[in-house]
Amino acid sequence: MRRIYLLCAPLLMAQTAPQPLVPEGIHQSATEQPHLCGFTAANVDALQQKVMRDPGFREENSDDHYRVFNRDRDFIQFVFSRPGFLSFPMATCITVTEAADGTSSIKRELHCSGTREECDRIFVEWNDHDNRIRRDMESQGQ
């Protein structure tokens, strides 16, 4: 009887293993240096320093979890997680572009150095945020 249990145990474990929140192929492991919205640096901290030194960016609406930097001239926003917060170090940027017909679109880029589970959760959080922005833009006719 014990032998049957030992043979079945891997099958049971495989069926109960948690599935990732985000399907494979949607994002990749952050093993390379961050390259977001045209900015590249050796790591997330260096990227944040680069954004902070750019005179076009200003810090706005930062909170206990994130530092937020906006550049109005080309509608770029960078967000960096603070130490001790989920998926630290994490950087994300969003660009807003306007088409010739006046419609606006957004594009997000994300660099997460946490575990797969942490990065999946932060990806889902930002995706939900972006979907709310898109709905707001659509309701305003943009």
Sum up the structure in keywords.
5-stranded antiparallel beta sheet, alpha+beta, globular, 142 residues, two-stranded antiparallel ribbon
Describe this structure as you would to a colleague.
The protein starts with a helix and ends with a helix. The protein is of the alpha+beta class and 142 residues long. The longest helix has 24 residues, at 116-139. The model is unreliable at 1-15 (pLDDT under 50). The chain has one domain. It is globular, with a radius of gyration of 20 Å. The strands form two sheets. It has a five-stranded antiparallel beta sheet with strand order 3-4-5-6-7, with helices on both faces. A two-stranded antiparallel ribbon has the order 1-2. It has helices at residues 2-16, 44-53, 116-139; strands at 35-36, 39-40, 58-59, 66-71, 76-81, 90-98, 104-112.
Topology order in helix (H) and strand (E) letters? HEEHEEEEEH
**Number of DSSP helical runs:** 3
Uncertain runs: 1-15
User: Could you give the count of β-strands?
Assistant: 7
Query: In one word, what is the shape?
Result: globular
Query: Largest sheet at a glance?
Result: 5 strands, antiparallel
Strand % is 25-35%
What value does the average pLDDT take?
80
Total count of domains: 1
